[in-house]
What does this fold into?
Amino acid sequence: AQKITQTQPGMFVQEKEAVTLDCTYDTSDPSYGLFWYKQPSSGEMIFLIYQGSYDQQNATEGRYSLNFQKARKSANLVISASQLGDSAMYFCAMREGVGSARQLTFGSGTQLTVLP
Amino acid sequence: DAGVIQSPRHEVTEMGQEVTLRCKPISGHDYLFWYRQTMMRGLELLIYFNNNVPIDDSGMPEDRFSAKMPNASFSTLKIQPSEPRDSAVYFCASSLAGVLLSGNTIYFGEGSWLTVV
It folds into this structure.
């Protein structure tokens, strides 16, 4: 079974509008972390935001916020006031376990295009 | 601070040749990961090291692939002999260990774009 599911292969948004990128996850581990990465056309993977499974509040980093709904196992990324430079592939990822590092499991990604 | 540094950024090689990709993790990070990204399979973990010791190499596709970490600041991923289906972007990443805290994310290098013709 897929551990991370991103159901939107591509999304379009008008500049200055907000956009939500969906991510659902599957784990039986009570301790996990959820990450979002941005991959522009140049190829590098840029860390955006993190949400821990025990965090009481939704994570925010500048224009990025994570809409964490634990019961639904969803961790959607919200980008406010979209900019042309936000056009990129966005990956949701999960890391399970406490006490030692584990690998990240990635979703298939969502290609976001910001329209002028 | 310097991030994860990978070389070469781009490599074009002929089938059958040996390819060596190099990585310098972030100083102080004790976990190092090698990922491969393709259109068909997305991002997949090949191998990861903890304190220079390989912990999980179950993602290494074949015996043609090998990885080493001779010290805390250097790792290599070698493909010998290379095949066209090895064409992909290979990412090195590093992380601190410990509990899941926001500071312990995995940081990626810029990737090595490999084309085998």
